[in-house]
Design goal:
Blueprint: H1 4-7, H2 15-28, E1 30-34, E2 37-45, E3 48-54, E4 60-67, E5 73-81, E6 92-97, E7 110-114, E8 128-144, H3 147-153, E9 164-166, E10 184-198, E11 205-213, E12 216-222, E13 227-229, E14 236-247
Parallel strand pairs: 8-12, 8-13
Antiparallel strand pairs: 1-2, 2-3, 3-4, 5-6, 5-8, 6-7, 8-14, 9-10, 10-11, 10-14, 11-12
Length: 248
């Protein structure tokens, strides 16, 4: 079953597989001390990053993948988001995309993104406006060769612009507010560049695309198993995504 690890070409189907890569990252990565423990950052190659979490008792408590691409979005960080299931080294921000004034909430829409290196930014004064590199890990992805093909696929009674976004992690399908909010979005975007990249550790291929959508650019990554249609330069992609970000 596709996961955030298989999105980047890691062959993970069991907890044992996950631990294998956590130990491998711990061996080859760079240790970064933080107030609440440490991360071991393994820059695998081709944009792939693994962030292993170790608490103050030197025990591994988690690991998150991230993809470091070329996209950048201006974001107004408003508040921290905490979730019961998170470790002390996990963290998320509630933000507004592309603020038009010095007010962080003057952006186009609110959204939430997770950070693999959250505790390295401690303490950060909020609110603030900063550039963010966002990696959108596809849960579902459809590619269209061009805008005309995308437009023809739209339902006659419910049409979305080629560059549009819904912050689905903030509310339920019935419109109720999610508490806590999740780092999830649905969007359509224009493909500025794309490639089939290879994970240097596993030799497995995965999709990458730099995509422009409402609010700015994101780096989209996807497991080939979940991709439908064509992901091509100047085409349109539509999908649902988990958002992982790093502050620039």
């Amino acid at each position: 079953m596709p996961s955030h690890m298989t999105t980047l070409g890691f062959l993970v189907t069991t907890e044992q597989d996950f631990r294998h890569y956590a130990y491998q990252a711990s061996e080859f990565g760079e240790k970064i001390e933080t107030p609440n423990g440490s991360y071991t950052f393994w820059e695998v190659g081709n944009g792939i990053e693994l962030w292993v979490q170790t608490n103050l008792h030197k025990r591994i408590i988690g690991m998150n993948p991230h993809f470091r691409g070329r996209a950048s979005m201006r974001a107004g960080l408003v508040k921290y988001v905490s979730r019961k299931e998170q470790t002390i080294l996990d963290g998320s921000f509630y933000a507004w995309a592309n603020p038009i004034t010095n007010d962080p909430t003057s952006g186009m829409f609110p959204f939430v993104f997770d950070l693999p290196d959250y505790d390295t930014y401690h303490p950060i004064l909020l609110p603030c406006i900063i550039d963010v590199q966002l990696a959108a890990f596809a849960h579902h992805l459809i590619g269209f060769a061009d805008e005309a093909t995308y437009t023809a696929s739209q339902h006659k009674d419910l049409k979305f612009a080629p560059e549009s976004l819904v912050p689905s992690g903030l509310f339920t399908p019935t419109g109720k507010i999610k508490e806590p909010p999740q780092a999830e979005i649905i969007f359509n975007g224009r493909v500025l560049e794309t490639a089939r990249l290879v994970n240097p550790v596993t030799s497995q291929k995965f999709y990458w695309a730099r995509v422009r959508t409402l609010g700015g650019e994101m780096d989209v990554v996807a497991d080939p198993q979940i991709v439908q249609g064509q992901v091509v330069q100047d085409g349109i992609v539509n999908g649902t995504f988990w958002l992982s970000g790093r502050l620039l």
